[in-house]
Specification:
The protein is mainly β and 456 residues long. The protein has a single domain, classed as Methylamine Dehydrogenase, Chain H (7 Propeller), CATH 2.130.10. 3% of the residues lie in helices and 39% in strands. It has 1 helix and 34 strands. It has a 5-stranded antiparallel beta sheet, with no helix packed on it. The longest helix is centred in the first third of the chain and has 12 residues. It is globular and about 55 Å long. The N terminus is likely disordered.
Length: 456
């Protein structure tokens, strides 16, 4: 650890700028996954074993698949710490087509402590940690999941951490509890059999003065907007939905703002101010995970649990049921769509004019974002599975596999693999990028990767 701190001090004295940048929620602003162009470029190559371009790594107790978030020089991260000697999860083997094969819950578990940690971005030092809840988990998790898979969110004044059945907890930037809300038991699992409990993964988002949480569960699903200062409900809308794991997204357009929620029965858009439904597209896949994203005046929504794998590019100001007619890829509101190609777990990303979709089995497909024309399809890696969503910076895509390999692909119309970098631990959390750093949350550590003068 002392060596890691020394590297950061060396970086600061040799011209490496660690500018204060923000990555405030899952995949940054609007879940876009693209770092601020004004930020210093992060590295495309590193070597963890030799500490090349590794600013620091910090042990993280417990088990969590949530992503780190960043505000200025603070990183926030959640975890669930078991009272047993070590909580474990089991990455799933894939079928030939990249589908998962295990539907089991992890079984009965001992008491846990659900925690929010704050770290210094320059050194990796843990500044404070707060225990939001202690007790035996109310709902079981999937063998591949954790009890801390929802990414926190911040607006620079407060941090919101969502632990499902263990509640929504909001702290100020120094760790003082401001408010907490119990949103009920979040029984999220396999829709065909409620005995299989898999746990939550949908993350809260903050937009202006509200916190929005999507609670799709076995019964009585809903989406809710809470006052960010007090936790009081602004609105709650019931949803005829089975469990899903997608994070909602706020999309602004001429004429208003909508909250787009991806799920099995339908993709729905709600008025941000009232929670009233504005439009829907019906007929998603049975298990729905990817988060909606916006670019070029469109909302891109996808799901990919076989055999239903749609991608839709939608005008956000639509009204009513805008489901395309059978065998019709578009209509007045759906600019383009495809019945195949949607990702099962990862969220797509738009870089420039291209929409990139990474499948579980490492096949990367590029589409023209405005038209849906396929540009290329290329397997990034063989024999590796991907749960973390792609992120991008400085014209490069970063794709982290569950085996802990981060593949760097040049953004553009031709596939080019620039580098393959090993983390050395299992990775299921989506990385964050801020101030020229890539933050990778792995099974046991949080890694900060930056261009260090001493590594060149």
């Amino acid at each position: 650890m002392m060596r890691a701190i020394g590297l950061v001090i060396l970086a600061a004295t040799m011209g490496v700028t660690l500018d204060a940048q923000h990555w405030p929620s899952f995949r940054g602003d609007g879940a876009a996954g693209v770092a601020d162009a004004a930020s210093p470029p992060p590295p495309v190559r590193w070597d963890v074993s030799r500490a090349v371009n590794v600013a620091w790594k910090t042990p993280i107790p417990g088990l969590g698949h949530s992503s780190p978030i960043v505000w200025r020089d603070r990183i926030f991260l959640t975890t669930a710490v078991s009272s047993a000697s070590k909580a474990v999860f089991r990455p799933e083997p894939l079928t030939r087509d990249g589908e998962v094969t295990n539907v089991d819950s992890a079984g009965e578990e001992p008491a846990h402590a659900w925690k929010l940690l704050a770290l210094d971005r320059r050194t990796g030092k843990v500044l404070w940690e707060r225990t939001a809840h202690r007790g035996v988990p109310t709902v079981k998790r999937h063998v591949k999941n954790s009890h801390a898979s929802a990414t926190p969110a911040t607006d620079g004044k407060r941090v919101v951490a969502w632990f499902g059945s263990e509640g929504l907890h909001t702290y100020d930037m120094d760790g003082r509890l401001l408010w907490k809300v119990d949103l009920g038991d979040q029984d999220v699992g396999w829709s065909y059999d409620p005995d299989y409990q898999w746990g939550v993964a949908s993350s809260p988002i903050i937009h202006r003065d509200v916190v929005i949480v999507q609670c799709d569960r076995q019964a009585d699903s809903f989406i809710v907007a809470l006052d960010v200062q007090t936790g009081k409900e602004r609105w709650r809308t019931e949803r005829d939905e089975i469990p899903s794991w997608a994070t909602p997204a706020v999309v602004e357009f001429d004429g208003g703002s909508v909250v787009v929620a991806n799920a099995t029965q339908a993709v729905r858009a709600y008025d941000l101010a009232t929670g009233k439904e504005r439009w829907r597209i019906e007929g998603n896949s049975e298990l729905t995970v990817p988060t909606p994203i916006a670019a070029h005046g469109l909302v891109f929504v996808s799901s990919g649990y076989r055999p239903i794998q749609p991608i839709y590019a939608v005008r956000p100001g639509a009204r009513g049921d805008i489901t395309p007619a059978k065998d019709a890829p578009s209509n007045d509101h759906v600019v383009w769509s495809t019945p195949r190609g949607g990702p099962y777990i990862t969220t797509p990303i738009v870089v420039g004019d291209i929409l990139y979709v990474c499948a579980n089995n490492g096949v990367l497909t590029a589409y023209r974002a405005r038209t849906g024309e396929r540009v290329y399809q290329q397997r990034v890696a063989s024999g590796e599975s991907f749960s973390a969503s792609p992120v991008a910076a400085n014209g490069h895509l970063y794709l982290a596999s569950e085996d802990g390999d981060v593949f760097v692909v040049r953004a553009g119309e031709a596939f080019e693999l620039v580098a393959t970098n090993a983390i050395g631990e299992v990775v299921l959390a989506t990385p964050a990028i801020a101030g020229g750093m890539i933050l990778v949350r792995a099974e046991r550590h949080l890694f900060a990767l930056a261009r260090l003068e001493s590594s060149r």
